[in-house]
Specification:
It is a single chain. The chain contains 14 helices and 10 strands. By secondary structure, the protein is an alpha/beta fold. It has a 10-stranded mixed β-sheet with strand order 4-3-2-1-5-6-7-10-8-9, with helices on both faces. The chain is globular, with a radius of gyration of 18 Å. It starts with a helix and ends in a 6-residue tail after the last helix. It binds 2-acetamido-2-deoxy-beta-D-glucopyranose (4 copies). This is Inosine/uridine-preferring nucleoside hydrolase domain-containing protein. One of its GO terms (cellular component) is cytosol.
Length: 345
């Protein structure tokens, strides 16, 4: 216990010290279906010392429903100057978290001073176009790459001054830490889009594949401490209420390595690792990452391919032999950030 506490403290103080100026950031999300997007977005909003959030684009399936969840989250933080871009609707899927945002319409967001772009891809292209060698952007991709790929198809040079941090793929391990790779969801949902994302020219490409994200569950002591702030922190309250809605509406049935419930801890926070790596750039700790030449195959696998792959800084495992020691470090930093948001912007 003492060791874990000291370990956590030394890590969090190290990482919390590395703040220079906030980086212009685009978040591309399928928030509402799995719960990890909500924690990633909340972390990004809470850390205005690290991220200058310029645009949130909602991609895949019911993008209008997703946009409403983003709008409600922005309203919790009173961040009405962050525009929301609605990507193309690509079909019907579960949006288990939607009920949480039902009382806050996009019209309300607009009348509170917010901006909603109905043509999300156009707004995305415009924002990516603002990245230059003197104004480098982060792009945090935590859903299927549908919108991003449409934009890059007509304008491939837009990725040139952008660092991409993506939750995608499965390199050596699959879901539930199986020793064969899986067709990871974000890739499998739109394989041609993933192929475009992986073959584009990024200034940097940091990848959080399920090899590592499998272990991203926050529970035990750090979760119990987080629960203590439900009254005093509106950000904590918004996490706990949206998580409870998502869980009750179907989230409770999704697969995870460890059991989870709102009282005991989170489901698998796959996407949070991509956001965390963006915030800590250039540091990849507590992951062990390696630059691998990766391609997405036609059937949706992530393949190491020396002749055709582009170099991707891929998180392959964690520094500690027990991966949960490392992911608890990440969790403690993320949850602490949400408890005590920085107030720069
Ligand atoms: C999905 O989108 C349609 C509009 O395209 C909307 O009427 C419906 O209520 C949405 N909601 C959810 C939760 O899927
Ligand atoms: C996406 O939607 C926009 C309009 O909002 C449309 O112009 C564009 O063609 C669509 N893209 C695809 C690939 O469907
Ligand atoms: C993950 O799988 C590897 C290889 O099968 C195994 O050595 C390791 O103990 C597993 N980790 C966990 C936490 O289950
Ligand atoms: C690498 O990709 C190319 C093009 O898709 C393919 O022809 C080749 O077989 C791949 N190499 C390996 C080692 O899989």
């Amino acid at each position: 216990m003492n060791f874990i506490k000291r370990f956590l403290l030394s890590f969090s103080s190290l990482l919390l010290l590395t703040n220079s100026s906030p980086v212009p950031t685009i978040l591309d999300t399928d928030i509402g279906t799995d719960y990890d997007d909500q924690v990633a977005l909340t972390y990004i909003l809470a850390r205005s010392d690290l991220f200058d959030l310029k645009l949130v684009i909602c991609s895949s399936f019911n993008t209008t429903a997703r946009a409403q969840i983003v709008a409600k989250t922005l309203s919790v933080f009173k961040r009405f100057h962050v525009p929301i871009a609605i990507g193309n609707i690509t079909g019907v899927n579960n949006v288990w978290e939607f009920e949480w945002a039902q009382d806050y319409s996009l019209e309300q967001f607009s009348s509170d001073g917010g901006t909603v772009y109905q043509n999300g891809e156009e707004a995305l292209a415009n924002e990516m176009g603002k990245a230059t060698s003197e104004n480098i952007y982060h792009y945090i991709q935590i859903g299927p790459a549908t919108s991003l790929a449409h934009v890059l198809e007509s304008n491939p040079s837009l990725s040139k001054y952008i660092r991409l941090f993506a939750m995608a793929g499965s390199i050596y391990y699959g879901y539930d830490n199986t020793s064969t790779p899986s067709k990871e969801y974000n890739v499998a949902t739109d394989i041609p889009a993933a192929q475009i994302m992986f073959s584009s020219e990024w200034l940097y490409f940091g990848l959080a594949p399920i090899d590592c994200t499998n272990f991203m569950q926050f529970n035990g002591l750090i979760w119990q401490q987080f629960l203590n702030y439900v009254i005093s922190s509106s950000a904590v309250r918004s996490i706990l209420t949206s998580y409870a809605v998502w869980y009750a509406n179907g989230g409770k049935n999704i697969d995870a390595m460890e059991p989870f419930s709102p009282g005991t801890g989170t489901s698998t926070m796959h996407d949070v690792l991509a956001a965390f790596l963006a915030g800590a750039y250039t540091d990849v700790s507590p992951t062990i990452s390696e630059i691998l030449p990766l391609v997405i195959t036609r059937d949706g696998y992530t393949q190491v391919n020396a002749s055709h792959g582009k170099g991707v800084n891929s998180c392959l495992k964690f520094e500690t032999s027990n991966p949960y020691l490392s992911t608890t470090v990440v969790g403690s930093i993320v949850l602490e950030s949400i408890i005590k948001p920085t107030n720069k912007s």
